[in-house]
Amino acid sequence: MQVEADIQPMISQPVQSNWFIRGTATQCRVIGATILRELHTRFGRENIGYLWFLVDPMLLATGITVVHLLVLRSMQDGLEVGPFYITGYCGYMIFRANVNRAPSIIDSNRTLLFHKNVTLVDLVLARCVLEAMAVLMAMYILLAATTAASLGHLPDRPLLIFAGVGLMFWLTTALAMILCALSEFTTMPERLTHPITYLIIPISGMFYRIEWMPEVVRKYLGWFPVPQIIELIREGEWSGLSSSYLNVPYLVGCCAVLTLLGLLGLGIARRRMHFS
């Protein structure tokens, strides 16, 4: 009897481990299939089809960058104009796209929830992963184009850029979960997210570094995660940059708290949903 008691934990542990691996693999397949469905729904197969996945963010980022290239010849700290606005606008584009599209996630994918393996978290993750991938690829293509045109250079510390994009993805996914959950109770998120994402552009850090602002402004910008994350992305582009206003533990804490709130909100929203 004692031998059986000693062997039982050894048997149950691999079973539990295999269950976790199978469950994770299933959800990854669900997210991958949802991404493909999102691609087909949004871009279709007409004209250039899935290439709009890249062209859409590239056009917007290129327009902003060209305008500033025509106006400015140099910037503070010896930064090139092109890469400065490409990294700033692409970083903010992840935030804007994921937040703006979050309130419509349930309505546009409600039929998928009939499948037991599809959850609200899967739907949010699929859409946010798609946006982050598109913007990251567009940013690197544009940085390569500015390098070829002798208007910039490739990132000095690409891993920092990936870290910044990863933090922005985490932050916006958490916010998207909260907005997605709220959209099941009220239409206010859908009506307010677009104007709000435009109104906060002045404090997003797209057009400046935090160090360039007056002291009284810097103190308040430090509480807002988006400009800090854009600072991190720019530190990946220029090895000589180092911001004293970048607080990574604070950013991770904000993302963790918002993620917890988002998961709780999605759980409440899912229990409220009824299908006829």
How are the SSEs placed, and which strands pair?
Blueprint: H1 2-43, H2 52-71, H3 81-101, H4 105-109, H5 120-148, H6 158-183, H7 188-199, H8 215-221, H9 225-237, H10 248-272
Helix pairs in contact: 1-5, 2-3, 2-5, 3-5, 3-6, 3-7, 3-9, 5-6, 6-9, 6-10
Descriptive notes:
The chain is mostly helical and 276 residues long. It has one domain (50-272). Helices cover 72% and strands 0% of the residues. Helix 6 (158-183) packs antiparallel against helix 9. The chain is globular. Mean pLDDT is 84; it is low at 1-13.
Give a short account of the largest sheet: none
- Runs with pLDDT <50, length 5+? 1-13
Overall SS class: mainly alpha
The count of DSSP E runs of length 2 or more, i.e. the number of strands, is: 0
Radius of gyration: 22 Å
Task: Give the number of helices.
Answer: 10
Give the overall shape: globular
Encode the helix/strand succession as letters: HHHHHHHHHH
Which percent bin holds the helix content?
over 70%
Distance between the termini: 53 Å
Mean pLDDT: 84
Instruction: Report strand %.
Output: under 5%
What descriptive keywords fit this protein?
276 residues, mainly alpha
Provide a compact summary of the structure:
By secondary structure, the chain is an all-alpha fold.
